[in-house]
Write a structure and sequence with these properties.
Blueprint (H helix, E strand, L loop, with lengths): L2 H22 L6 H34 L4 H21 L3 H34 L1 H15 L4
Helix pairs in contact: 1-2, 1-4, 1-5, 2-3, 2-4, 3-4, 4-5
Length: 146
Amino acid sequence: MKITDAFLGEHGVLYAHFDHVQQAAPAAAGLALIQGQATLLTATLGSHAHLEDELLFSALDPYLGPMGPLAVMRMEHDQIEGLLAAAQQAQGPDQALRLLLQAVQVARSHFAKEEQVLYPIALQVLGESRLLELGSQWAARRGVAA
């Protein structure tokens, strides 16, 4: 499996999580529940972003350089992480909810850029065989059969 396919699969699971957060969080009764959602998203998105940066982005760095699409992707990873951290530290439920929903919105937009722009570039620049090799590395890191 190509690493881009693996990350698309992760996106699919995360989209379902985003849907749940956007539907359930506004009705959540209390700061702790909203912050709990932010903590869970921090873990799942953080794991996804870490592997993406370590495996795919680092493979693309020599071809795309430090600026351009990879710089945008890394900046958005940091932005999402910052919003979720702020939601976890918020003093009230309204602020925590606003930050959590903003993080979800940025993540959705980020995923769209990856799916529509970055992953096609990766196929063009790295080629299918390198994406398959990276997919095997992804599977080993995730502990799943390739």
